[in-house]
């Protein structure tokens, strides 16, 4: 699949998966809804910095964006398992887990 087809499809998949509206994504990325609509409707291709903002909104890397769901490039099996568990946690559970992990680091 060509990049200009993949990017809009992937953004829509991520919005659906994370239950994020175009309006909310615009807020999270500090982009206009029009700019996002142009990307999602294949009228424009985002720059790398714009794509980074979209990835940041979903908490993923650009590599993960292009690898797709279930694909964790450059990770060990254990790291991948941790991220799969992380993906299933809600915001409060993630906060609790991060606090716990930070205590282990000290």
Automatic annotation (TrEMBL):
Domain called HTH cro/C1-type: residue spans: 11-65
Annotated GO MF terms: DNA binding
Gene3D superfamilies named among the record's database cross-references: lambda repressor-like DNA-binding domains
Superkingdom to which the source organism belongs: Bacteria
PROSITE patterns: HTH_CROC1
Protein's UniProt name: HTH cro/C1-type domain-containing protein
